[in-house]
Recover the amino acids of this structure.
C-alpha cells in the first residue's frame, strides 16, 4: 500500500522555484511604473518644468489601463524558438532597459517632446511586460499556489518601488540624472536573467490558432456573459476605482519638494514610510476579505482609501515636518494597500 503524498510545509512552499520566479516577476513588473510615480516628477522638477506639465505626464500611464486592447496580439504572435511567453519577456525587458537609459540622456529643460515620446514607449513596454508576466505566472502556478504566488508577486512589486523611489532620489543628490537612469535600468537585469534561464510553461490549453480567436473571441465572450451594459459598467468601475487616488498622488514627489524636503529626505522618509504600511495593508486586506467577501471589501476599502487622502492637505499646513510627512504617507499607503488588494481580487 503506497503512502499518501505529504503536503508541503509553509517554508517549503515559500522556497520552491515557482515562488522565486514570482519574486522576480513582481520586481520587474513594478520597477518601471514607479519610475513614473516617483522618479520622473523629481527629474522634471530639477529641470524647472512647469507643474502643469509634470501633472500631465501622469497621462503617460494610460497604457497600463488600456493594455487589455493589445493583450490578445501578444498572446497570438511570438518567436517560436524562444517560446510563447519567454520570447516576449526577453524582448520587452531588453527594450525597457534601453528605453530607460535613452530617457536619461534627454534634456527636458530644453525639449520635452523626446521625454514624452520615450515616456510613452516605456509605459507601453512596461504594460506589455505586465501582460506576459501575469500570463506566465498563471501558467506555472498550480491552483493551490495561486494565492501565495500572487502575494509574493504583489509584495515584490511594491519593494521594487524603493529603487526609483528611494535609491534613485538619494543618488540624484549626488550623481547626474543620466547616471541615475542607467543604474535604475540595470535593476531589470535580474528579471532578464530569469527569462533566459526559466523554461517555457507546459500549455494547459491550446493557444489561439487564428487572429480572430486571439482578438475577437475574448471580447465577444466577455460581452456575452451579461450583456453590453454590464460590460461597460464593469469597465467603468475598473477605470474609476483607482483614478482618484492616482490623481491625488501623481504630483506627490513634486509636492514634497515644494514643501522643502530634499530628494534624500524623500528617499529616507516618504518612500520607506510607504512601503511597509502598504504591505501590511495588503496582507490585512487579504485576511479581511475572507470574512467580508470581494464585493463588500471593494466598497469598504474604497472608502478607507478615500478617507486618508485629505491628510496631504493637512500636511501642507505643517511645512517642513518629517514626522508629519511619515504619518501622512504611512496612512495613505495603508489605505491604498487595502484598496489595491480588493481591486486586484
Amino acid at each position: 500500500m503506497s503512502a499518501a503524498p505529504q503536503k508541503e510545509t509553509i517554508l517549503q512552499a515559500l522556497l520552491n522555484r515557482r515562488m522565486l520566479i514570482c519574486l522576480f516577476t513582481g520586481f520587474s513588473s513594478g520597477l518601471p511604473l514607479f519610475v513614473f510615480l516617483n522618479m520622473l516628477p523629481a527629474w522634471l522638477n530639477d529641470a524647472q518644468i512647469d507643474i502643469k506639465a509634470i501633472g500631465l505626464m501622469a497621462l503617460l500611464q494610460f497604457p497600463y489601463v488600456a493594455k487589455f486592447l493589445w493583450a490578445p496580439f501578444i498572446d497570438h504572435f511570438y518567436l517560436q524558438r524562444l517560446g510563447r511567453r519567454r520570447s516576449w519577456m526577453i524582448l520587452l525587458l531588453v527594450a525597457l532597459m534601453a528605453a530607460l537609459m535613452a530617457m536619461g540622456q534627454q534634456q527636458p529643460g530644453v525639449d520635452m517632446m523626446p521625454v514624452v515620446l520615450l515616456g510613452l514607449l516605456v509605459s507601453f513596454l512596461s504594460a506589455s511586460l505586465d501582460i506576459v508576466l501575469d500570463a506566465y505566472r498563471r501558467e506555472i502556478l498550480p491552483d493551490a499556489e495561486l494565492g501565495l504566488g500572487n502575494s509574493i508577486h504583489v509584495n515584490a512589486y511594491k519593494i521594487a518601488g524603493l529603487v526609483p523611489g528611494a535609491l534613485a532620489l538619494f543618488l540624484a543628490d549626488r550623481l547626474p540624472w543620466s547616471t541615475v537612469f542607467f543604474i535604475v535600468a540595470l535593476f531589470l537585469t535580474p528579471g532578464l536573467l530569469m527569462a533566459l534561464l526559466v523554461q517555457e510553461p507546459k500549455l494547459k490549453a491550446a493557444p489561439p490558432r487564428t487572429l480572430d480567436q486571439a482578438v475577437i473571441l475574448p471580447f465577444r465572450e466577455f460581452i456575452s456573459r451579461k450583456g453590453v451594459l454590464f460590460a461597460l459598467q464593469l469597465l467603468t468601475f475598473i477605470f474609476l476605482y483607482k483614478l482618484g487616488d492616482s490623481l491625488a498622488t501623481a504630483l506627490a514627489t513634486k509636492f514634497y519638494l515644494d514643501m522643502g524636503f530634499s530628494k534624500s529626505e524623500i528617499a529616507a522618509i516618504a518612500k520607506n514610510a510607504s512601503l511597509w504600511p502598504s504591505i501590511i495593508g495588503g496582507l490585512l486586506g487579504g485576511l479581511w476579505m475572507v470574512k467580508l467577501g470581494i464585493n463588500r471589501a471593494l466598497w469598504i476599502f474604497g472608502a478607507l482609501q478615500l478617507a486618508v487622502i485629505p491628510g496631504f492637505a493637512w500636511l501642507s499646513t505643517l511645512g517642513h515636518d518629517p514626522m508629519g510627512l511619515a504619518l501622512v504617507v504611512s496612512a495613505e499607503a495603508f489605505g491604498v494597500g487595502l484598496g489595491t488588494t480588493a481591486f486586484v481580487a
Confidence is low (pLDDT under 50) at residues 1-5. The chain is about 75% helix and 0% strand.
